[in-house]
């Protein structure tokens, strides 16, 4: 299956070391720009399934055991930006998207 890349926003919309919220097909995403990471930009669901609110774009970034994660502003659980895995609750994982930067645009893979 070929990956379809959708332009989500401009690279200039991103904030270094922090998150912004974006909308893809009616679903809220949280985009994180981490220039010092190999991946540079990450896309996860903005929905915190434990806090039950769209807040993850406002969470704080953390580098734990060499993995970038975000701490939910509500109950402070960490979600890994690459896998969506919650570090405190083994059974909780949130959706993630492949994302890349190209000629000043942020592209997200969708199926
Ligand atoms: S733009 Fe419709 S599935 Fe991605």
Automatic annotation (TrEMBL):
<dbReference type="InterPro" id="IPR017881">
    <property type="entry name" value="NirD"/>
</dbReference>
<dbReference type="InterPro" id="IPR036922">
    <property type="entry name" value="Rieske_2Fe-2S_sf"/>
</dbReference>
<protein>
    <submittedName>
        <fullName>Nitrite reductase (NAD(P)H), small subunit</fullName>
    </submittedName>
</protein>
<keyword id="KW-0534">Nitrate assimilation</keyword>
<dbReference type="Pfam" id="PF13806">
    <property type="entry name" value="Rieske_2"/>
</dbReference>
<dbReference type="InterPro" id="IPR012748">
    <property type="entry name" value="Rieske-like_NirD"/>
</dbReference>
<keyword id="KW-0560">Oxidoreductase</keyword>
<dbReference type="GO" id="GO:0008942">
    <property type="term" value="F:nitrite reductase [NAD(P)H] activity"/>
</dbReference>
<dbReference type="GO" id="GO:0042128">
    <property type="term" value="P:nitrate assimilation"/>
</dbReference>
<dbReference type="GO" id="GO:0051537">
    <property type="term" value="F:2 iron, 2 sulfur cluster binding"/>
</dbReference>
<feature type="domain" description="Rieske-like [2Fe-2S]">
    <location>
        <begin position="5"/>
        <end position="108"/>
    </location>
</feature>
